[in-house]
């Protein structure tokens, strides 16, 4: 980033304008940009020959590249980074885009996950790219926990949260469990649960089990530890990455891009590195742009990621929304879309939690 700022500062006005025109035209068309095309858009009349010389200088700086034998130029990853950091003009959010995002709040299906599914669909439709929405984990305080025996090898744990949310999960209890041991386990857990979220309770229970190991019936202890193992497995309380619009990435893709897009599809399908996705967003408030190999989540595909966190009423980051696509994304248009969507989701989830408590 320091390199791009230095290069930009050393460029004269003509070089900056030629560079900006090349990048804007490339982002709009996806095709290499020739000197004649640039000359028609310049603010002052400059010959194509002069522009060619400027473009050659920009290529020497590593900002432009000549693909194949084409006479046109395309921006490099360094060039795109410099454009995004120093020259990009972020457009205002279009009315139709705002309306499409706002329409996601009027769905018939209630619940956070349904809302975020609609948000993902809207984002992919508006941007013609793939959308990523990281749903928050359910982290309200636990009000009550109960264990119910279903069979000799199956038990049900019922979790009631302070916001009214209820989860039922089936797991395998330790052998030889008695009704009294189940009651003792439930009493032990509920005595620790007050004012704690599930993740906080989990950590606290571990310490208490270690400290009071002699006081707890061995069967009850086994049940509690089985419950801890079950809560740590993949479930509704963990972050969920919602991916929509993968097919949009195939539009306008040439043969050279197909392998990279397949690699991206594989990454998205396996939904790996979800925690890192949120970590990207947590590195600073507002929209962040990762271009090509800067995007370690999907670096094999050479894609770009535009991502923004959303927050709850306590200004704590609880999830993120983003758009992923080719490096020639229309960043100036997508940034305000992602920013507005993240703010809207944060307001909606904060309002929903207030209504429920």
TrEMBL record:
Residues annotated as transmembrane: none
Occurrences of domain Winged helix-turn-helix transcription repressor HrcA DNA-binding (ranges): 13-77
Record has Transcription regulation as a keyword: yes
Keyword Transcription regulation annotated: yes
GO molecular function: DNA binding
Coiled-coil segments: none
Cited NCBIfam families: hrcA
The protein's name: Heat-inducible transcription repressor HrcA
